[in-house]
Amino acid sequence: MTDAATGNPLPDAKGWFGEFGGRFVPPQLEPVLDEIAEAFERYRDDEDFNREYEYYLRQFVGRPNPLYLCDKLTRQQGGAKIYLKREDLNHTGAHKINNTLGQVLLAKRLGKKRIIAETGAGQHGVATATACALFDMECIIYMGEIDTERQALNVFRMELLGAKVVAVKRGTRTLKDAVDEALEDLITNYETTYYMLGSAVGPHPYPAMVKHFQCMIGREAREQILAAEGRLPDAVVACVGGGSNAIGLFAPFYDDRSVRIIGVEPAGKGLDTGEHAASITLGKPGIIHGFKCYTLSDENGDPLPVHSVAAGLDYPGVGPEHSFYKATGRGEYVSVTDREALDAFVELARVEGIIPAIESAHAIAYALKLAAEMEPGQLIVVNLSGRGDKDVRQVAGMVEAGEYTLEVRGAMA
Ligand SMILES: *Cc1c(COP(=O)(O)O)cnc(C)c1O
């Protein structure tokens, strides 16, 4: 079966994209996930559902957002034209709201009154709390205690939006423990409660569902580039954490075989340092968090500690559909270091007047290199997945500590 919206292959009934995906959960969760999968199948093409979803995307999120030609960066690099898909202009400043609005509407159709989610950096927590405020849902966000300290401002944002943030004190007190606690809550309270997942990962049906609720990114970009240039781009580029902004851009170009699909992973301090989160580049197929994907894990199959300067890319696995793109050769996956991403963060601010999220700066960094290698007149679409206001304090701290200097190098030199 193929997806009417994107033309690309859907997972089979059990959520397999080739050998990736599936569902590896305790037996108590099977019926809970079945209920969500059935609701998703019922409503994904339902007219009333889509009318309501599209209303909020337009009036609340501000879609469609522009596809912006970076004229100055293009001239500077001397190669392909660089277009940015402006997800940073969405309400709440990133692509995550596209997904949380879709899922909250589904939860409403299921008669659920209570939403739970887990968050690491806090961005998904904020997008969830926003959707819950709008639809009068009780909202509980599980967050590792260490993460609540590192991301105190996002904790306050969630509380301001009416959410209850639970600091998880067990284990390593980070994302993994927050996931465990959220799943226990779900098993106990599933009759009233909906579990909101923030990326195209996890057990079936989440990867297919989150992709569905992010695909307007690529659908809009495809229409916009055809309107602006009269032809398809030569490459589409996005950063890959769990992979939701990337699959949202890529999927509608899946059947356009002339379009190169390029995912950019965080190489952290370097691929040879062990301090990175390049799950596809250096990982092996394995099972984490209820699904099979390329994963960075030890010999027992336990996820390894990962690092990226971008908190939103700091994940030891990757969505099953990206794993499938990689294994079948449809997608290319590359990596960019912390340093290169920081340089691109500064570069986009200085040259185009746009401060990107550090996550998105990974995609920008690779696109700048790629543009310079390509011919003038060729076209690149880069997903600017979010704005960088949330990262300004972190970068200022690095400059103050002497870990980074603001002289722009690389492409600018
Ligand atoms: C969360 C986040 C990401 C990474 O998540 P994906 O699911 O891989 O898209 C990327 N960019 C921004 C701005 C984010 O907030």
Describe the protein's topology.
Layout: E1 16-17, E2 20-21, H1 29-43, H2 47-61, E3 67-69, H3 71-77, E4 81-86, H4 96-109, E5 114-118, H5 123-134, E6 138-144, H6 145-150, H7 152-160, E7 164-168, H8 175-189, E8 193-195, H9 206-212, H10 216-229, E9 235-239, H11 244-250, E10 260-268, H12 279-282, E11 284-288, E12 291-295, H13 320-328, E13 331-337, H14 338-352, H15 358-373, E14 379-384, H16 392-400
Helix pairs in contact: 2-4, 4-5, 5-7, 9-11, 10-11, 14-15
Bound molecules: pyridoxal-5'-phosphate (PLP).
Q: What would your notes on this structure say?
A:
The chain is of the alpha/beta class and 413 residues long. Helices cover 42% and strands 17% of the residues. It contains 16 helices and 14 strands. A six-stranded mixed beta sheet has the order 3-4-14-9-10-13, sandwiched between helices. Strands 7-6-5-8 form a four-stranded parallel beta sheet. Strands 1-2 form a two-stranded antiparallel sheet. Helix 9 (206-212) packs across helix 11 (244-250). The N and C termini lie far apart (50 Å). The model has no long low-confidence stretch (mean pLDDT 95).
